[in-house]
Please model this.
Amino acid sequence: MKKKILLMMAALLYLTTVFAVSSNTTNAESIDLKGNYLYDRQGRAHKIPITKKGNHTKAAKRVAKLIARCVGKKAGDTDLTRVDTAVYYVSLFAARDAYSMKAPYYNKAYGVFIGGSCSCAGTADAMQMVLKQMGFKAIHVNKNKYTHQWCTLKMDGKKGYADGQAGFANYGSYFSKKNKYVMIPSTSVAFKKMNGELE
Model:
């Protein structure tokens, strides 16, 4: 099962021939995570509030609030633009974590943001926490199940999804019904960064 998950993640990250059309127009050249700093869309650095003592849920929530603040809301932003930016931030944390389904907090936002290990369960938990801070109602799909996990939510009045592990969001269904593959939005921050369109 672990091999299947890893293969699926490789497909998610490297699938560049399948595009989903969306109106997401994020200008996100500056979005980044370097050391203990998040960089917002204007390139401003924000120190990540890393706390390993005390309540771990509250510690993770402080990071989720920072991500929501870094996303912000610019004139002309669609919900999808904002959610896709937030998803990309969560994926930056996940990319520097060790993949685990046994480490402490692997399935919690704390593991993603502070603990240094996560799985899709943890990134879905982190994504749901960030989306709540941004004012969205998100559902954690496949929670507590041994299969891939992500979030669903309404954006701009349409049903959609957000996958913090893969690093993108879009309108519609996560998997196409006919072919059972993931539609990677060509306008997402993750896709543009992967293709060298953004630094």
Confidence is low (pLDDT under 50) at residues 2-27. The radius of gyration is 15 Å. The helical segments are 2-14, 56-71, 79-96, 109-115, 120-133, 189-194.
